[in-house]
């Protein structure tokens, strides 16, 4: 029987991209682990903090292209930890927000593998800070909802559109660049005005960050024209009207960034 006393898996949130937004605990984990199993959305700046001598395994997924199916990733994590290795399972953003972290932990715990979460700043928070667009604001939004804009196997979105089409709520759509036309259409069809402000943010908090300010009625066409590179998220709601309102207050620059 394998000795699992030393092996463990740490599910680490890599944050939105800026390495200075890693937690101290996350940094320590990726610099001391025996092996780092990482996703596609982990920024090159964060990957650069991993020691050269540390084994790295790329299991990143992109639409219609999975280097390794999820079941195989689960089996890999179990196998590595069962061999007594400390594994940093590195995920973009936070492992518990659209990161499938809880699914992997369920498999690990069923196999008797010790595991822990290390939270990360999710992309919505990173984009909010870098653009100066608050996710809530008195008089504009009383709440915020994080929504997935993608379904497995490219299935049609089956969201509660009526509930989402609320002008008192900020909507943040993850993994939705391919479906933004359907998303905007359904939100308008269920009552959200076409003039509702919308903002696309790609590679938030990194030197590659790009933004498209638009409206719900125009965002799909604007994205099709400019084609922002993943990772992209969309902030939809009246709070986007504050974008650029106070230029000096909304600039986000990490130390050493141009």
The biggest beta sheet reads: 5 strands, parallel
Please bin the fraction of helical residues. 25-40%
Spatial order of the strands forming the largest sheet:
3-2-6-1-7
Total helical segments: 9
Give the CA-CA distance, first to last residue: 53 Å
Helix/strand order: EHEHEEEHEHEHEHEHEEHEH
Task: Write up this protein.
It is a single chain. By secondary structure, the protein is an alpha/beta fold. It has two domains: 8-118, Tetrapyrrole methylase, N-terminal domain (Cobalt-precorrin-4 Transmethylase, domain 1), CATH 3.40.1010; 123-244, Methyltransferase, Cobalt-precorrin-4 Transmethylase, Domain 2, CATH 3.30.950.10. 28% of the residues lie in helices and 22% in strands. It has nine helices and twelve strands. It has helices spanning 24-32, 44-47, 70-82, 101-110, 123-131, 161-164, 180-189, 219-226, 247-250, and strands at 8-13, 35-38, 55-58, 61-62, 65-66, 86-91, 114-118, 143-148, 169-174, 197-202, 210-215, 232-236. The strands form three sheets. Strands 3-2-6-1-7 form a five-stranded parallel sheet, sandwiched between helices. A five-stranded mixed sheet has the order 8-9-12-10-11, sandwiched between helices. It has a two-stranded antiparallel ribbon with strand order 4-5. A hairpin with a 2-residue loop joins strand 4 (61-62) and strand 5. Mean pLDDT is 90; it is low at 246-258.
């Amino acid at each position: 029987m394998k000795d699992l006393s030393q092996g463990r898996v740490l599910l680490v949130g890599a944050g939105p991209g800026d390495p200075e937004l890693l937690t101290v605990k996350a940094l320590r984990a990726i610099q001391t682990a025996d092996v780092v199993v990482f996703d596609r959305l982990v920024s090159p700046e964060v990957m650069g903090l991993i020691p050269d001598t540390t084994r790295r395994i790329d299991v990143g997924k992109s639409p219609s292209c999975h280097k390794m199916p999820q079941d195989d990733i689960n089996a890999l994590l179990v196998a590595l930890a069962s061999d007594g290795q400390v594994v940093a399972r590195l995920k973009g953003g936070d492992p518990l927000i659209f990161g499938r972290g809880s699914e992997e932990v369920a498999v690990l715990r069923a196999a008797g593998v010790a595991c822990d979460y290390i939270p990360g700043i999710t992309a919505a928070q990173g984009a909010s800070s870098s653009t100066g667009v608050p996710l809530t604001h008195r008089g504009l939004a009383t709440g915020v909802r994080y929504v997935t804009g993608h379904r497995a196997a490219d299935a049609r979105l089956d969201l509660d559109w009526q509930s989402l089409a609320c002008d008192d709520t900020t909507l943040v759509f993850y993994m939705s660049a391919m479906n933004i036309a359907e998303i905007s259409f359904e939100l308008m069809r269920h009552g959200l005005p076409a003039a509702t402000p919308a903002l696309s943010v790609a590679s938030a908090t990194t030197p590659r960050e790009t933004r498209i300010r638009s409206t719900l009625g125009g965002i799909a066409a604007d994205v099709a024209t400019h084609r922002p590179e993943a990772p992209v998220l969309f902030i939809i709601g009246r709070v986007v009207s504050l974008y650029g309102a106070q230029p000096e207050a909304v600039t986000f620059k990490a130390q050493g960034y141009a």
